[in-house]
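Bench log. Compound arrived from synthesis this morning; before running ITC I wanted a structural hypothesis for how coproporphyrinogen III sits in the protein. Inputs:
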Amino acid sequence: MTFNDTFLKACRGEATNYTPIWIMRQAGRYLPQYQKVRSGRSFLELCKSPELCVEVTLQPIDILNMDAAILFSDILIPMEAMGLELEFHEGKGPIFPQTVRDQAAVDKLIVPDPLETMGFVMETITLLRKELKVPLIGFAGAPFTCATYLIEGGSSKVFWETKKMMFTAPELFHSLMDKISRCTSKYLLAQAEAGAQALQLFDSWAGVLAPVDFESYAFPYVKRIINDLKPTGLPIIYFANNGSTLLEYSADSGADVIGLDWRINIGDAVKRVGNKAVQGNIDPFALLLPEDKLRGRIKKLLEDAKDAKGHIFNLGHGIHQFTPPEQAKIAVEAVHELSGR
Ligand code: CP3
């Protein structure tokens, strides 16, 4: 089989024979084949085993015929490499037992050498490039999203500690953001060097910020990282979840592709981001629709996105762990068939 570069063409806004699709969290718990690899070991053990990461990265490509692969890892791996203990508790998500809430804690963080501390990631990328017939997406968390986990000590709903630091100790907050950003640029450059063919920044929590606060506390760091990555020449995807109010910033971030969650009509988003490719944006739960309705939704979304400079079909956020894989398969087939030109 020859290499399928449809995804890369769409990222660059070049003409494609059909709309490419991949889905966030495509390698994960909704696939029984993933659960089999995952059973008997912890999530972090899996993340640190290159051969197994290769196996689970390939699963959605082989089973569901995705047009791009995403490196199997986690946005919190580099935070651990900065010197913090990281635990994943079954059903509770990530925990950082030592939170970062004062200058001493920020000063203690290191900006690690990616190859020395996260060699397993670069090894996974190298191995994957030998196997893959579709492009490989590398990724990292955007600094604000990563910072929330370090400051809160795990997942949060209200972000009390994060916003308290922003508003009562802005210099401390900025010093943390600066350090995370330097780590992130180095990490993504190492992924590019190892063979990643596109890079996505996940800003899962950007949407909890007022636009004015996004502009001063989060956006400058996103821009700086994307600027640091420009010399790689790789397409950069910026995904600010719940970011409909931030689209003009996203468009101005330097990214080539703007990731969209499902809360906005894709046609409206296209008008606002201008001359940029877009990625998204069906509600992950719409995968539960009966086949005819799901196909109808996909057809409408493809039509709404027709004026985009490029469109990569995706969900508006990660696939839910209880989604039947057959439904994801219906979506992939529908996108390929209905967008064929
Ligand atoms: O297929 C892929 O998308 C690649 C792998 C990937 C994972 N996490 C694997 C994973 C990617 C790109 C991520 C990104 C990630 N991780 C984000 C940004 C995207 C988003 O969802 O907003 C965030 C916020 C994290 C942090 C994280 N990792 C949380 C909050 C959790 C627990 C939540 C949950 O769903 O249980 C994880 C765990 C995690 N990361 C799993 C997977 C497959 C589940 C681990 C398991 O138990 O097997």
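What the model suggests: Residues 6-338 form a domain with the TIM Barrel fold (CATH 3.20.20.210). The CA atoms of residues 33 and 132 lie 18 Å apart.
ITC booked for Thursday regardless.
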